[in-house]
Amino acid sequence: MGVPQLADLVLETANAPGTGAFTLGGAPDGRQTFADAFPNGGDVYYYASDGVQSEWGVGTLTVGSPNVLVRKTIIGNLFGTTSALNFTSGVTVYCEVPAKKTPSLDDDGQLPVSGSPDFTRDVALSAKVADARYLMVNSPDEQTVEGPVNYASTLMITGDNPELRFNRKGTTNWSKWLGPDGTLILQRLGSDGSYQADYIRYLPSGEIDFAQPINCLSDMTVEGKAAFGGAITVQNATDSANPVSLGQLNDRISLELPVGIPQAWPLDTPPSGWLILNGASFDVTQYPKLAIAFPSGVLPDMRGKFIRGWDNGAALDPNDGQVSPGDKRALLSTQEDALQNITGQTFNGYRGILSAFSGAFTPYATATHTAIAKNLDWGGQGGVSNYNGVNFDASLVARTSTETRPTNMAWNMIVRAA
User: Fold this and answer.
1) Which helix or strand (DSSP H or E) is residue 129 part of?
2) What is the per-residue pLDDT across 217-274, written as a single tens digit (0 to 9) for each?
3) Using CA atoms, how far apart are residues 135 and 335, in angstroms rounded to an integer?
4) Rounded distance, CA 341 to CA 381, Å?
5) Distance separating alpha carbons of residues 55 and 45, to the nearest angstrom
6) Ramachandran category for residue 283: left, alpha or beta (phi over 0 → left; psi -120 to 50 → alpha)
7) In whole angstroms, what is the distance from residue 418 CA to residue 415 CA?
8) Residue 338: how many other CB atoms lie within 10 Å
9) What's the CA gap between 278 and 413, in Å, rounded?
10) CB-based burial label for 217 (10 Å; 0-12, 13-18, 19+)
């Protein structure tokens, strides 16, 4: 509730109110009525006595005809209770503050207030609580704040050497934000009072300088590019004793998968950091390792093609120096498709009539040709095995199509871009 009102020289009489409200009957000479002191009414302090018994508390004044003071909160009475007394005769009513509600100074002239204020209300705050909870504006002295501090606007710290310290309660290691020359520095303060070597500096250029290794206890996500001038180490949580630098990690990746090795990929779009081997050009400056494998800056076109191991003198590739010793196949050269030779034989029998076949050849004859052959009656066979026609069909000895190919599966061929 709000603070009850208080005024000087207020005194009125009331006639036998019992335990109910005081119907105020006016003030004697030299005093003022409650209505004169509080023309808008409201809560006021009161003290009532009939000369035998008395009570005090807070009443609600209603200004009118007549003026009425309703007992709202009885703080105390002559009998040590908070019950309304039964006044059966005339009563004098004063406006006085009870001792319980009267602030008093201590021996040093200071006004003590609660050390546990309700921060949701408009109440007094002790200096000790304020010093621990809030920063003082324009204070020339070092300030310490315990607990969270929230600022609805900008916090500015000025001076020749401005400094803001943070300390975990019960420890001696402080952190220091220091902003001389436009550089913001985070630095530990040792137990001996000296600043330690490890720090983080935020430079006026917008760069962040880490003097000590960064230890990420959980996943770290970096949006965009991050440039590190010093060493970066990567360690497994299960093998913390053997950290690996970023350079070593790249070396391991390069050893396990050198740039330039084609890889099969099951999707039509390559993963991040990879390119499709489709004969396209690439930036040799952006991908210097890829340029070592393909100095021309053009990727091989692997679409619809198979990889064949380089013969290099094994005498298995007929185009690798087998036809002409000086005509050796170059790496990454393309070899056109070809068909292994298919052969067969026919036998020229009696009077030039074909009578035997092998391989991809089969006999061909018509009814007329068969009748002629029977009339010849060569070798007592009646000409039944003699033919004058021949068919050639490679499908008799091999699977056929419009191309020559092995059994295969379609994949996208990609290469790491680095």
Assistant:
1) helix 127-133
2) 566 666 666 666 555 666 655 555 566 665 666 666 555 678 999 999 999 999 988 9
3) 81
4) 35
5) 11
6) beta
7) 9
8) 9
9) 8
10) exposed
